Amino acid sequence: MSQYKKKHQLLFTIIVIALMAGSCDQISTSDSGLQSTSVLVQTIPPATLTAISAAQEPSQTPVPEPMGLPWSSVEGLELDFWYVWDLDQPDTGMNAIVDRFNQENQWGIVVNPVDQGLVLDPLDSMEMAFEEGIVPHLLLSDASTIASWYQDGLTLDLAPFLDDPAAGIPVKDQNDYYSGLLDGFTIAGSIRPGIPFSQAIQVIYYNQSWAGELGYSTPPNSEQDLEEQACSAAGDRELSASSQVQTTGILLSPEAANIASAAYAYDGSFLSPEGDGYLFNTPEMQQVAEDWQSLLRQGCGTTFYTYPDPMSSELSFEYFNQRKTMMMVGSSQMMDYVNMGANKTGRADDWEMLPFIGPEGKKAVSSEIQSIVIFNTSPEEELASWLFLKYLTSPEVQAEWSQYSRYYPTRKSSLRLLRDFRTENPHWSQGLNLLKYSIGIPLYPSWNTVKLSIGDAFEEILIDGTLDVEEQLLALDQLAAELWEYTRE
Q1: For residue 392, what is the domain's CATH number?
Q2: pTM for this predicted structure
Q3: Of 19, 75, 256, 352, whose Cβ has the fewest other Cβ atoms within 10 Å?
Q4: What does each C-alpha distance from 239 to 85, 229, 254, 474 come to in angstroms?
Q5: Same-domain status, 191 and 242
Q6: Are the C-beta atoms of 192 and 371 separated by less than 8 Å?
Q7: Is the torsion defined by CA of 126, 128, 130, 135 positive or negative?
């Protein structure tokens, strides 16, 4: 072999070895970035923190300052983050999500998560802390409470952060939220007291197997269909779990979230058209009340109320599981309580979640939104809190929290990260199809009190079928108006 050929063969061998070594280095580096701190989620890569900073890549153009502050102003800050959840264990759930931020964020921000759900009344406990001047930097809570906190001067309007050129959320990402969810999450049309994080919806649980045995091949398509199927189930004894237990067609709860869902399905509302309060005495609300009264009067339905006894909700699921009712209203968050026993075929009943249905077939579900608020502290801490908020609301984190908590995400792109989870959890996945019917609960400071008044008023209407519905709704209007004014003082 000539010296020329030997030299070129040697050169070729050296080049191949170098290329293989470089490829191995690249594969090793890539894989090391896919280790999640959560023992629950191994299929979702960690949320990239590059999405929450404009200062990642070297650039010829000066990096804009976020909210008029230098990026360095948030370095090493420590934040307290309160949330309401009572199932967290170390290294899982929200703890794992926060741990990852602490390990990965480039500013050295440290977030201390505090679970406020470990007490009997989390909201009361937090309100007492606020009165003593103890506030966190961020808080994750039901949306029904946040308007009053903003009104009291405790929390920030997040609109300037949302639209900030350096640290805000780009328009394309704002459009990633479910339709109307971010746009409608305002006070007076422009004030943003929080950013939606997750949601649960009020639905009708429906026993498909039992309905099929009664001759119904499809779920109800209107309120009239629902009444017919409910009355058929109530009249059935052979197919129920026990002939000694009164069977009913549907369990109705008069709590405000269910009344809201029904009102929306009847193409109505309980908000004043002028946007300055509530209006319950409307034809649509009267029809809801009268139709529910009719179901009870015919023996086709039974009522239960979860306030002030939350255990009644669990009892209602026992009725559903044991074929003592074919339908019941409730939150999607309670789906894990459904545990159907074997029916006469020897297998568990099939069930699904339905939207509320109006006389004309309109479908609706009210959405209980959990949102993140930022409290008034220092400009630097508020900016650091916003950076953590952006991380929390990223599609990756929303997908991880959905798997752990069973809440639904508020951003559509989270779904691509939930393919396996959706396949393994068909009932949860089926609820995703109902999100297009969802309408949020109003962000009024008075809502937390008014919703209890709604439950009390409709409980009286349902228990005593002789009450005049219009008179009861007029009385509710008067009480709601007083509460509206009281919370504005």
Answers
A1: 3.40.190.10
A2: 0.84
A3: 19
A4: 39, 14, 28, 42
A5: no
A6: no
A7: negative
